[in-house]
Amino acid sequence: MPTQAKEIFEAQSKSLRELLSDNGLGLYLPPYQRPYGWGKDKVEKLLDDTLHGLKNLGEAPDSFTFLGTVITIHDVNHVTVKPIVKPEVPSKVLTVIDGQQRLSSLLILLVGLHNLIRQCAWKVFKGKTPDPTDSARTHLYSETINILQMLGAAFYERKNFGTTPIYPRLIRAFEDQWAKDEKLKQYESPIANLTYKYSVLADGESPASKPTDFRPKARQDAGDGEGDLIKRFNEIRAALTKLSQRKSIEELEDLPPLATLATGIEFQRALFNHELDPELCTWLGQLQDEPEAELMRLVMFAAYGLNRIALTVVQGKDEDYAFTIFESLNTTGEPLTAFETFLPRVVMAEKIEDYQESGAYAYMKAVQGYLDHFDVGDKLQNATRDLLVTFALAETGKKLSKRLPDQRVYMRDTFERHKDSAGDRSAYLRHLSDTAAFMGNTWEPAANSPRTLAGLEATAMTDTVKLCLAFLNSLNHTIAIAPLVRFYSEAVHADEGEARIKRIAEFEKAIKAITAFTVFWRATRRGTGNIDSQYRAVMAGDSLTGIGPLARQWAVPDASKPDPIVDAEALKKELAARLSDPKLGGIPNLASFLAAASALPLYKISRPLTRFLLLAAYHDTIEDPENPGLIIQGKAGVASCFTVDGWADETHLTIEHIAPQQATSGWDEEFYSQKETVHKLGNLVLAPGAANTSLSSRPWTEKKVLYTALGASTADDAKSVLNSSGLTFAQTTEDLAAMSRYLPHLRALGQRKDEWNPKFMDQRADVLLRLAYTRLKGWLDLELSDSSSDPVVQVEDVEIENDELDDKDAGGAVGTA
C-alpha cells in the first residue's frame, strides 16, 4: 500500500503546558543545532506578545499567543541520542529540528517565573499554610502551589528513583546525557545546565524554609551561547519583577489590572480552567501594591504562559522528511546548512571522546573557518551550497543540485561509504578541507587579501597562475574550481622535494590548459555552449581519450574501470579532444577558430573573455611596418601586458570601440547595417579608460591621432603628437600626455592612413585572433594548423543556459558611447 501523508508527518497545536508537561517527554537538540543566540529584542517581543494576548483575553476568551511551528522527529528508537544510557532515556524523545531558540527562551521564562513566584510566596506566606477560615488567602495559596507544580513539570521531570532523579526537559547532543545515576548524568550545555541546577535547587528545598533566589552566572569555558542565555534570563527576571510591581516598561504592554481578573469569569476560566473563589476575587479587587498583589500578577502571567501560549508541533517520520517539512513551512527561521547537519555524522564516526584529538577535527575546523567568513542567512547558505556543489564534482564527479535536501543526502551517503575505515574517512574529509581552502584562499579570498595557494610555497603562485585565476574568476567560471582543486590537493599533500615540485608544475599546466580550453570554447559560440557539461564529463570519467575520472573516485566504484587520474598531460589531451570533436567543440584547428571567433560580437558575449584575448594578442608585439594599423610578434619583453598586472591595469587597458557603438558622422555606414558589427573583436581596442571623454564619437581621422599619442613611449612624444595635430580635445594636452604609455597596438592604429572600414576591421580581427591562438595553443598542445585542407566546422549558436550564465559578463570595462 502506498505511504500516506499521515505516516510521514503529523501536526498538532498544543499549549506550552500540553507540549512540555507530557509525561515521559524529553526534548533533544541534535548536535548540528546552533548555539542559543536570541537577542534582547526577541525576548522583549516574546514578553510583549504574551502581554498583548493576556490583555486581549480580558476582552475575548478565545485569545491565544501563537508562537509558530516546532519541527521534530519522534525518535522511537533513540537513534539520534548521543551519548545515551539506553534504559534511562525518557520514554518519548522528540528531536528538535526547528524551534530550539523559542523553546529554550520559553523554558528560561518558565524557570524565571517559578523562581520569582517562590520568592513572592515566601513574602506572603512565610512557608506556612494559611488559616482555613481565611478563604481568600487559602485560595491564593492553592493557586500558587498549583501554578508552581505546573511550571516545574514543564521544565523538568522527577523520576521515582535514582541518585539523580531530576531530568531537565531539554538537553543537547554530545554535551548532555539523561541518567538517574550521579556518575552517568551529564548536563553541560547552557540550557540543560541552567534548568537542571534550578530544578535540583527548587525540588530539594523545604517549603518551610526561605527559598534561595536563583541567580545564575556564566561558567568559565562554558559552551557558546551560555552568556546570551543568562543575559536573557536576567532580562526576563527584571521585566517580570517590574510588571508584578505595576512599573511600566517602555517596550512592553502592562499587565491587566487585577480587577479585570477579579470580575471576568470567562477570563478566569481561560487562564485557570476553573472559576476563582468569590472571596479571593473580592480581595483581589481591593489589592494594589501589596506582596499578595505582586504574587497574583505573576501567577496570572504564568497561567497565561502555560495555557494560552500555543505552538504547532510537527512530528516527521525521520530526519530527511523533517528537514523537508521545515524548509516548506519556514518563513522566519534560518535553515541549517548541509555542512551543519553533516558535522555530527563525522563526530559520531570518530567517536565523541576521540573527536577533538583526531585529524577529522582539524579538517572540519578548517572548513568551518572558511564558512565563518559568511554571515548567517543567504550568504552562508550560498557559500555552503557552492562549496558542496564544487566538492561533489571534485569528489565523485557528481552534478549536485543546489537544493538543501539533496546536499544533505549526498554528504550523508558518500560519507557512509567510508565510515568503517579511518583512512578512507580521513581522505574524504581532507578533500573537503582542501576544497574549502582553495575556494577561500585561491579562488575568491577575503577583501584586500592576496590570492594564495595555502600549504604551498609562495613561488607556486606564478604570474601566469595569478593571471589565469583572475580571468576565470572574473568570468565567474566556477565549474573550473573542481578540476583545479584536484591538482591543488595533490600538490599540497605531495612529499617535499622533487614530488612536490612536480605536482606544483602539474597544477600550473592544468590551470593553463583549463584557461585555454575555456577561451577557445567560449570565443567560438554565443553562449556558454554547455561548457560546464564538458568539465563534468572529464570529472566523472566520461572520457574521449580513455582516461579515468579526474574526480577523486568513481561515483559508483567499479574495479573494471580505469583508476582516477590527476595528470596535466592527460587533461590537456582530453580537453583538446573535446575542443576538436565535431559533435562537441567543433574547433579542430586555427582556421575553424578564426572562422567562428571573428564572426561573433565578442564584446556583447563576454567582456572578460574579450579583454583576455586582446591582452594575449598584444603581448610583446610591435607595429607591422608592412601593414600600417596592424601588429606583429616582437621580441620578448618589448611590450609586456599578458600578465596579472596587465589584467589589473584597467587604467590603461580598458575595452574601447574604435568605430563608435552608435552611428555618427565620419564613419563607414556599413558598420551599422548590422547591429553586431561594431562589437566584433577587430573593432575593439584596449586604451586608457580616462581618455574615453576625448575619444568619444570623434571621426577616425581625429581618433587615430589620439591613439598615437596614448601609445607614445614618453609624455613628451605624446605632447608633440597632440600639439602638431592642431586638434582640440575634451581633456588638456597635459592630461592626455600623462595617460600615455608605450602600447604598440595603439601606435599601430595611428599609423593607418586609410579610412577605418569593416574590411580592414576583419583583417585586424584575423591578426589579433592568430596572435592570441598562437599565445595559447601550447597550453593545450594544439597544432598551429592553418591548412585549407583541414575541415572548417561551422559552430552553431548555442542558447545560454540559465544556470550557466556568467553573471559578471555583463560588467567589466565600458566602451565608448
TrEMBL record:
<feature type="domain" description="GmrSD restriction endonucleases C-terminal">
    <location>
        <begin position="643"/>
        <end position="770"/>
    </location>
</feature>
<feature type="domain" description="GmrSD restriction endonucleases N-terminal">
    <location>
        <begin position="17"/>
        <end position="342"/>
    </location>
</feature>
<feature type="region of interest" description="Disordered">
    <location>
        <begin position="205"/>
        <end position="226"/>
    </location>
</feature>
<dbReference type="InterPro" id="IPR004919">
    <property type="entry name" value="GmrSD_N"/>
</dbReference>
<protein>
    <submittedName>
        <fullName>DUF262 domain-containing protein</fullName>
    </submittedName>
</protein>
<dbReference type="Pfam" id="PF07510">
    <property type="entry name" value="GmrSD_C"/>
</dbReference>
<feature type="compositionally biased region" description="Basic and acidic residues">
    <location>
        <begin position="212"/>
        <end position="226"/>
    </location>
</feature>
<dbReference type="Pfam" id="PF03235">
    <property type="entry name" value="GmrSD_N"/>
</dbReference>
<dbReference type="InterPro" id="IPR011089">
    <property type="entry name" value="GmrSD_C"/>
</dbReference>
